[in-house]
Design a protein that fits this description.
The chain is α+β, with helices and mostly antiparallel strands and 172 residues long. The protein has a single domain, classed as Peptide Methionine Sulfoxide Reductase, Chain A (2-Layer Sandwich). The protein contains six helices and eight strands; from the N terminus they run E-H-E-H-E-H-E-E-E-H-E-E-H-H. The strands form two sheets. Strands 7-6-1-3-2-8 form a six-stranded mixed β-sheet, covered by helices on one side. Strands 4-5 form a two-stranded antiparallel sheet. It is globular, with a radius of gyration of 15 Å. The N and C termini lie far apart (38 Å). It comes from Paucilactobacillus nenjiangensis. Keywords: Oxidoreductase.
């Protein structure tokens, strides 16, 4: 069985795990950090805005069950693609929305999907989500993994703005 990986940044990684984790064909979703210049950063270092990293999820999936294109579409519906400096209540460059692509095929799929979103923009503002080459992914500390399962009440509180945005923009 072949496995592939996808890496998406879209605000707090706590809120990015569940939508992917619930899909058939997903083998694993890890919270972590990518896109920066520090090797193996900690949460505190990333939160200090000095490492260049953003919080992200690394998704291991079976492409015979769920495609990368499907994952990109799920990603869009978890984010505000018009907000370059954070997502919802999470502000700063460590929460910026980025699709990290691994190779030409992922780049082509992500670029086409982004262009489709631009062409059919349901928002009042410009689509600003970046597409960048994959960079080293550093797994976050254990207490960040599967947060929605470990602390569902806090997860739901963190998720409130995201869910409201999705209802008001994506689900109209």
């Amino acid at each position: 069985m072949a496995e592939e990986k996808a890496i998406f940044a879209g605000g707090c990684f706590w809120c990015m795990v569940e939508p992917f984790d619930q899909q058939p064909g997903i083998k694993k979703v890890l919270s972590g950090y990518t896109g920066g210049h520090t090797v193996n950063p900690t949460y505190e270092e990333v939160s200090s805005h000095t490492t260049g990293h953003t919080e992200a999820v690394e998704i291991t999936f079976d492409p015979s069950v769920i495609s990368y294109a499907d994952l990109v579409e799920i990603y869009w519906r978890q984010t505000d693609p018009t907000d370059a400096m954070g997502q919802f209540q999470d502000r700063g460059d460590n929460y910026r929305p980025v699709i990290f692509v691994d190779g030409d095929e992922q780049r082509q799929i992500a670029t086409q999907s982004r262009q489709n979103l631009i062409d059919n923009n349901p928002f009042d503002d410009e689509i600003v989500t970046k597409i960048e080459d994959v960079k080293p992914f550093y797994v976050a500390e254990e207490y960040h993994q599967d947060f929605y399962k470990k602390d569902p009440l806090r997860h739901d509180a963190e998720e409130a703005q995201r869910k409201e945005f999705i209802r008001n923009n994506w689900d109209k």
